[in-house]
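Q: Could you write out the predicted structure for this multi-component system? I'm mainly interested in how the pieces pack against one another.
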Amino acid sequence: MEMSQEESDMREKLKNMSPEQLKEYQKQNCIFCQIISGKVQSKKIYEDSRCIAILDINPANPGHILLMPKEHFSVMPQIPEPDIGHLFMVSKALSSEILKSLKVKGTNIFVANGAAAGQRAQHFMIHIIPRKDNDGITAFNIPQRQIPDSDLDEIKARMVGVIAKVFGLRAPATEEKKDKTEEKAGGKTKKEKNPENRQAKERLVSKNKIAKDLDDKEILKSEKIDLDKIAGLFK
Amino acid sequence: MSNCTLCDLAQGKENAKVLYYDEICIAYLKKMPASAGHIVLIPKKHYTIFEQVPDTETSHLFKIASKLSTAAFETFGHGGTNIIVQNGGTAGQKHPHFSIEIIPRNENDGLNFLWQPKQLSEEEMSTTELMLKEAAANIGGFGEGHKKEVIKEKEKEVLKEGDKENYLLKSLRRIP
């Protein structure tokens, strides 16, 4: 099919935009950003400084909630870590309130990253879907395929390196700078120059921090959740 | 051996293709995957459903899930990922141990996690909205000063009401 003049102009315009301009353009054309700013009406369930939860107007089941960050992100890898943590803590809380108030027996938490994964909206969102027995939803029966053990080994070999890289890249730019200044200051020992050692150190530091956070939040664990019944379905 | 296969797996008593682990969680390749690179991420501690997982662990788990998702994007260089939690037997949960599934996706991979939307009446939507809104008013305290915000909003309301009263009083006073 031939492109109309308008379309080709648009393509040209998009091609010449800086990433910031592109983000701003996406934001202006994002229906969910308009919902967040209140320009478009919605059935709002929850809101705080970082996120907003609304009812899906095309629900899989009554009470189907869409939880979104207020800032415009298309997919999960773009979202800063603290926001990921916050979004899913809110998801859990919403799921819990769904179980209690709608008297359903379960929930599905669903994220689609990318068009190939079924993502339709350009704004990252988490679906929280109430589930009942025999509600006719089969979408979340995850298919299982028999594959040879050797294939799994091969996939693992391919992924392990990338995973190490992704987790290693965590070191923020400022830390890299710090390393460089340390080197300049004459701290050029073999240990510090070895990136593997540095990554291991960082991992250890973050691990300790998590352990500490957990200690701090020990009280949370003792909090009684009256959802034992649902958990008890397995006992 | 415990009664829970996934607890055994987390403790290394069960064979698995482990991709990542730390003090809190462990991620492995699913033995019978939906697609190549299908990852299961579980907390090491035994929690049956999402609601039992403490906030700090929830936050940590999904940060890891996001990174694993990024790694899947990079490894297979295509399409996208689905992240699915089956919370409760009704929702398709197979093991009584909370888990997050990360499924790499490709165009034409034969998978489809999309649902048929249900048509609800305006009344049904409004009732659900009211019930959930009321329930969600309990949510807060994530350490981000959310509660403060709620209080601020309430203060605002009081202020507004105060203004109204003043206004009424003023207009009353204006009547000679």
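A: Regarding packing and overall arrangement: The beta strands of chain A are 44-47, 51-55, 65-69, 106-113, 126-131.
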